[in-house]
Design a protein that fits this description.
alpha+beta, Beta-galactosidase, Chain A, domain 5, Glycosyltransferase, 13-stranded mixed β-sheet, 3-stranded mixed β-sheet, 19 helices, globular, disordered N terminus
């Protein structure tokens, strides 16, 4: 168009010139041709000036545009950098205030401690228990119990009853003592109401006089605005604690001995720099003194330590009351909200729920819990013994008793940020895999957790999902591991803190959504549950879209987990942390051509659930149905993932099985005998593009686990055969994660990295296998009887072994040995291993 306008202007000038010549010639004025020629030279000069002006104007315009474009470009790069820590632009899922759900305001939301209480408030104070035997205390505080630590080697600990809302009861075996900790809440008012906690201790050697020191502490986070003080109690020789925060208002904490003998007591009021150093602060100031009555040496706390070296006074943010007792002994700790009392016009009740009143309240809660548990899971009706039912109660209670409340910001990094940057600050209400080893939120674990939690309490499950989806950024990414707040950071090595937005995690929340919208659809019209799903739906859309854009393969219809590209040459097989199956063997040489069968099946399942949810909410489900049907096509699945050699499903990529770790000298030119040898991976035969079909295991089962295979598929028969083959996946304790015939079976990935998903038995995948077997057993088809028979045997094996190992060791474990059935990994692991309760109840 610009060129056309320019040409049109030139034509106009020519015509004008021509007309001018004709006019001059006809009139004869200025008569001679020379004058005509002179007259024609003037417009030529004018045109030249115009052209120069146009050129200069164009360059100026281009220069100006460039000046605008450069900052715009860098501004756009800056915008891209900020996307990783920009929240999804929609109304928050968590809309309630901390006090809105009074029944769930206070709770045992500190799963990383043996017994700790806090509120669902970003600036909550914390309370909790420490204890130690004065005869066994080390010089640096070794022996003080506080954090749940595997190294403490406790014989057993865990919740035996916990309803997730109003009470919990726990037993802790720490030789030679058994401690019982419990709490009952009495919700009222606008500040969360009251609660009472009880600590009972007995010595398992009745004639032993070994003392035990119990410490109850109250602490404010470094950013919590509030105050703590101690004063004398009217009803007890022990001091009481008074405090105030913006969320709780005024409160008082009483210590009431119920029975037993107190040898001596003391307290500490001081300042701590962080919640992660409570035990260290206490152990650094405890000292020996001489008891005035007995003249014996005793351990005591020094009272107030509130002055610095310059003599300046500080307000205490940490108060600990220590009592040394002879067992048996029982102490009640009664929390009272003075602000709730004032707002109701009441006085402090004369008969606080301690002693017999508390005993009666706890007993009533326990009876109510037993009745509700049987109504929910019907295990007695199924013929389980009382001890087996008690095991199931403990497993479920540890799941809901392990729910924590965290607040803080993750550390994240994208390909566009040179360094890690902080995510926005947010709360997270979530269950945790393990109180000792993983007391924080994990994305793919949580979907499995919610299967059990939603069966027990669908509102808690929805509340947890709301918190997780508030952590979605504008791109649709959710960090797979949540390390929020001082207490969570205290348990994580620095190298694992940063989360990278290229890495996904299996979208297991769709398992929970499938369960809720099918089994509990009749409950969705109550308590605003349907409205919650309405608000959740746009976030789910963006989430599934993120998977469908960031995790797709190079060939249409295929998918690839990101994060394997940066493998180290000291790994036997590069890890795939994003998949959740960490060291499960994939293609030996990761590249962009890889295809991962499990991820494809996750997306197939997720789009099917999205279609169901869209239909439930009256939305257009056509897009998700179309994708689901496309990915469910067994012929297309076979084209991309069925090995023609083994007739099994597998990954595809650049692969060789002939790999090994070989020790080499770091500097081959120096042959010093003490030189450190380093193991790196070598391959004896070069890799080629092919199916990774020699590593049959959990990943190979996914078309079956996600129930994508048609009931008449001949490849379903092959999977059922391999499942039941002792040389492949079958054991007397559950399905092993990798075939015994695989070259990677039980191989270490590095010298310091023992096998993880290379043979051990995992309960979450056994749950999915039993769910799929139950499905195919009820579908008309040639393999329904085989599926039914295998289902019965596998369910028996899994349930029996988990219960046997619990009775033997006192714990539910992260995984189980495929040769002996013994628990392995970390303990207690009452995350997805607690799905054994749903297996017992046959609720899938």
């Amino acid at each position: 168009m610009a060129r056309n306008r320019k040409n049109a202007g030139n034509n106009s000038n020519s015509n004008s010139t021509g007309n001018l010549n004709k006019s001059s010639s006809s009139t004869g004025s200025s008569g001679s041709p020379s004058s005509v020629g002179h007259g024609n030279s003037h417009p030529k000069s004018t045109n030249k000036s115009k052209s120069h002006f146009i050129v200069m104007t164009k360059w100026r315009w281009l220069f100006g545009f460039g000046c605008l474009l450069i900052p715009a470009y860098f501004g756009y790069l800056g915008y891209l950098e900020t996307r990783v820590n920009t929240p999804f632009d929609a109304k928050k899922m968590v809309q309630h205030t901390p006090h809105e759900f009074t029944e769930r305001f206070w709770g045992s939301y500190r799963p990383g401690t043996y017994f700790g209480l806090k509120t669902r408030d970003p600036d909550s104070l914390v309370m909790g228990l420490m204890w130690f035997s004065p005869l066994r205390l080390g010089s640096r505080g070794e022996g003080i119990r506080h954090w749940c630590e595997s190294g403490d080697n406790l014989d057993k600990y865990g919740w035996l009853q916990h309803d997730g809302r109003t009470f919990g009861y726990q037993e802790i075996d720490d030789f030679p003592f058994t401690l019982e900790t419990s709490f009952v809440k009495f919700p009222r008012g606008t500040k969360g109401g009251d609660w009472t906690a009880r600590i009972s201790v007995k010595n398992n050697f009745p004639n032993s006089a070994e003392p035990i020191s119990l410490i109850w502490y109250v602490a404010l986070d470094k950013k919590t605005v509030g105050s703590l003080t101690t004063s004398s109690s009217v009803s007890s020789a022990l001091p009481l604690v008074r405090g105030e925060t913006s969320t709780l208002g005024d409160f008082i904490l009483n210590f009431e001995p119920v029975n037993g003998t107190i040898k001596h007591h003391s307290y500490l009021a001081t300042v701590v720099p962080s919640l992660r150093y409570l035990r260290e602060t206490l152990s650094s100031v405890i000292y020996f003194a001489k008891d005035k009555a007995s003249k014996e040496k005793i351990l005591v706390l020094p009272g107030e330590l509130l002055r610095n070296n310059q003599g300046e006074m500080f307000d205490a943010n940490f108060i600990a009351v220590m009592i040394t007792v002879e067992a048996p002994f029982t102490l009640d700790i009664a929390y009272r909200s003075l602000s709730d009392l004032k707002s109701s016009g009441s006085e402090l009740p004369a008969n606080a729920p301690v002693g017999e009143l508390y005993t009666n309240a706890l007993r009533a809660k326990q009876i109510e819990f037993h009745d509700r548990f049987e109504k929910t899971f019907r295990l007695k009706e199924k013929g389980y013994t009382q001890s087996e039912i008690q095991f199931a109660e403990a497993a479920m209670s540890n799941m809901v008793g392990g729910i924590g409340y965290f607040y803080g910001s993750s550390q994240v990094q994208s390909e566009r940020t040179a360094m890690p940057v902080p995510y926005w600050k947010a709360p997270l209400y979530t269950a945790v895999p393990s109180r000792s080893f993983f007391p924080r939120g994990f994305l793919w674990d949580e979907g499995f957790h919610e299967l059990l939690i939603s069966t027990w309490d669908v509102d808690i499950a929805l509340d947890i999902m709301c918190h997780w989806f508030d952590l979605m950024n504008v791109e649709g990414w959710i960090p797979r591991e949540q390390i929020l707040g001082e207490e969570a950071l205290a348990k994580v090595p620095d190298e694992f803190v940063t989360q990278r937005n290229t890495n996904a995690n299996p979208p297991t929340f769709f398992l929970t959504l499938k369960l809720i919208i099918t089994k509990y659809a009749h409950l969705l019209t109550a308590n605003n549950r349907l409205e919650t799903l309405e608000r959740l739906y746009p976030r789910l859309q963006v989430w599934i879209s993120w998977y469908n854009t960031t995790q797709i393969g190079n060939v249409f219809g295929t998918y690839r987990w990101r994060g394997r590209e940066t493998f180290k040459d000291n790994e036997l097989n590069p890890k795939t942390l994003a998949s959740g199956f960490d060291d499960y063997p994939r293609a030996s040489h990761p590249d962009e051509m890889e295809r991962h069968v499990d991820l494809r099946c996750w997306i197939t399942f997720a789009t099917g659930v999205m279609a169901e949810l869209a239909h439930l909410l009256g939305r257009d489900d056509s897009k998700y149905l179309e994708t689901h049907f496309y990915l469910s096509d067994n012929a297309l699945l076979n084209k991309f993932h069925l090995s023609p050699h083994t007739k099994t499903y597998s990954d595809w990529g650049f692969h060789t099985d002939a790999v090994a770790l070989k020790a080499i000298r770091q500097n081959p030119h120096h042959q010093h005998p003490q030189q450190t040898l380093q193991k790196i991976r070598v391959h004896r035969t070069p890799p080629e593009y092919k199916y990774v079909d020699t590593s049959f295991g959990y990943v190979s089962l996914f078309p079956f686990l996600m129930e994508i295979l048609t009931p008449d598929s001949p490849y379903l028969e092959k999977i059922l055969h391999n499942i039941h083959d002792p040389e492949v996946l079958w054991t007397n304790y559950g399905l092993r994660s990798l075939s015994k015939q695989s070259p990677m079976y039980m191989k270490r990935n590095t010298d310091d990295d023992p096998p993880y998903w290379r043979g051990q038995i995992w309960i979450n995948i056994n749950y999915l296998a039993l769910k799929a077997l139950h499905h195919y057993a009820t579908q008309p088809g040639p393999y329904s009887e085989d599926a039914k028979r295998i289902y019965t045997d596998l369910r028996h094996n899994v349930v029996r072994n988990v219960i046997d190992q619990y009775k033997r060791s006192g714990y539910i474990w992260e995984q189980y040995n495929d040769s002996t059935g013994e628990g392995s990994g970390c303990k207690p692991f009452t995350g997805w291993s607690a799905l054994v309760v749903l297996i017992m109840a046959e609720q899938y």
